[in-house]
Write a structure and sequence with these properties.
Nuclear Transport Factor 2, Chain: A, 3 helices
Length: 148
């Protein structure tokens, strides 16, 4: 086997194994940025951005077990009686499974609703899917950690 063929085989093997991993890392970084964009657009009530990030069949389950569709979540987000001052993630991890991303982490939100201050600290799981080259969140679940 000539040196040229060996180099060609080595490069082909590297491309076959490394490129999918690089694509997953890139997709994970993209989803992480979209999570931040979601939090920022929620905080600033940028409904057009929120709408673009949520799949048409989006569903969210909140702390009390209530569920909301895309329309319900956007209606809640547009409510002018709530002022979000802090909307931030910590301990965020993105796990890639092909065209699906599972995001877990901690969420902190502070603000004022109906003239009363609030401060929430939750755990969350978001499911994103890449369809036709575009990432959208299809499901979200928030829960309040049990204090020990």
């Amino acid at each position: 086997m000539t040196m040229r063929i060996r180099i060609g085989l080595a490069v082909s093997l590297w491309a076959f194994t490394a490129l999918p991993l690089l694509a997953q890392e890139t997709d994970a970084a993209t989803v992480r940025k979209l999570e931040e964009k979601w939090a920022d657009s929620y905080k600033h009530r940028q409904i057009d951005i929120l709408s673009s990030l949520l799949a048409e069949d989006f569903i969210i389950t909140v702390e009390d077990g209530s569920t909301y569709s895309k329309i319900g979540y956007i209606s809640h987000s547009a409510d002018g009686s709530t002022r979000v001052q802090v909307s931030e993630f910590t301990d965020m991890k993105v796990r890639m499974h092909g065209n699906t991303a599972i995001v877990i982490g901690a969420y902190h939100e502070r603000g004022e609703s109906g003239g009363k201050s609030y401060d929430y600290r939750d755990r969350f799981t978001d499911v994103w899917m890449k369809v036709a080259g575009k990432w959208q969140v299809v499901a979200s679940q928030y829960s309040t950690p049990v204090k020990q």
